[in-house]
Design goal:
Blueprint lengths: L12 H8 L3 H10 L6 E3 L2 E3 L2 H15 L4 H12 L4 H12 L8 E4 H7 L6 H10 L3 E2 L6 E4 L2 H12 L4 H31 L9 H46 L1 E3 L9 E3 L4 H11 L4 H43 L6
Antiparallel strand pairs: 1-2, 3-5, 4-5, 6-7
């Protein structure tokens, strides 16, 4: 005789709360939101079974992974429709997972102050926390999680170079907005040309696996593209800026007046002239050469004017002598 299998476990809501770790209030909220199937009604009592317990454990696991209740509802709906929750979760994990190989770190407040030269700036720390550069660890006073140690290292290096802390955080805030715009454009591009066939209302398990593989392959391309374009733009703009500074320095001349303290004024010269001088004497000697050439030209013109004035004065003296001789008449005996 075949033994009768034991009856499936049944739970009242209080028992289900105890077994799952959720509160009675939470279970009822999940039912209202459609996350948990309705229990069987027996008279005035609601009866739950192991499927409800399993669902509550799934929800708790997804919440720990950082999903919102709205996202969890969509995932569980995919499971209920037979689309393979595991494969759908694989796709979501690829998208939600780290997009960088960098590992997070931890830093104490004392280490943070030392990293930034012993300066204790509460406003800058608050800004860093607001931007997510630092994340306070619960239960550990004065200890922070650092999602990107590289980013913190860049900030420390900029501060050592003389950049104020609040200026660094303000620059990061502005940069983040610009980078998020680039990321949005990249996602729009890939959605249109790559992922459009995977965004229908009924994503099959095989499609979810294929989409997850695509995300895995394309994910590093975004970073590589931005790095290449940033390097190109930095080289172009830095070279342009340096040339502008050099032209400005090459056009500066010093022309002190006799007996007066030297003073410097900026003079604009044709770019071709500065380039020709630079080719002739080298970068470092260009300002001195231009100043010396200008000084020599001024002195030459002054000498020419003095000679001209001297010649004119001599001619006038000769003319005066001849006029006097004519006025006096012929000398006696002539």
């Amino acid at each position: 005789m075949t033994p009768t299998p034991p009856p499936a476990p049944e739970y009242r809501i209080e028992d289900l709360a105890h077994r799952s770790g959720a509160t009675v209030r939470t279970i009822r909220a999940y039912q209202d939101k459609g996350l948990l199937p309705k229990p069987e009604r027996r008279g005035r009592a609601n009866v739950y079974d192991d499927s409800h317990l399993a669902r509550l454990r799934q929800i708790a696991d997804l919440l720990e992974r950082g999903y919102t209740l709205a996202s969890i509802k969509e995932l569980l709906q995919a499971w209920d429709e037979g689309r393979g929750l595991g494969r759908v979760l694989g796709l979501v994990a690829e998208v939600d997972g780290p997009w960088s190989d960098e590992e997070s770190g931890h830093v104490s407040r004392a280490e943070l102050d030392e990293l930034f030269g012993g300066e204790r700036d509460e406003a800058a720390v608050a800004e860093a926390v607001a931007l997510g550069v630092l994340e306070p660890l619960p239960g550990k006073d004065g200890v922070f999680r650092v999602p990107s140690p590289q980013e913190l290292s860049v900030a420390a290096e900029l501060h050592r170079a003389g950049v104020p802390l609040l200026a660094i955080t303000e620059q990061l805030r502005e940069l983040r907005g610009q980078v998020e715009h680039i990321a949005a454009r990249f996602l729009e591009f890939t959605d249109e040309h790559v992922f459009a066939r995977y965004t229908g209302p009924h994503l099959a398990g095989a499609d979810a696996s294929e989409a997850a593989d695509l995300v895995r392959r394309l994910r590093p391309l975004a970073q590589q593209t931005v790095e290449a374009e940033l390097a190109r733009a930095m080289q172009k703009l830095a070279t342009r800026s340096l040339r502008a500074h050099l032209r400005s320095a090459g056009a500066s001349t010093t022309a002190p007046a006799p007996g007066a303290a030297p003073r410097t004024e900026q003079v604009r010269l044709p770019a071709g002239t500065v380039e020709a001088v630079r080719d002739l004497v080298g970068e470092s000697r260009t300002p001195a050469f231009i100043a010396a050439a200008a000084d020599r030209e001024v002195r030459a013109r002054m000498m020419d004017r003095m000679a001209a004035e001297h010649g004119k004065g001599g001619t006038e003296r000769v003319d005066h002598a001849e006029h006097a001789e004519r006025a006096a008449g012929p000398a006696p005996g002539d």
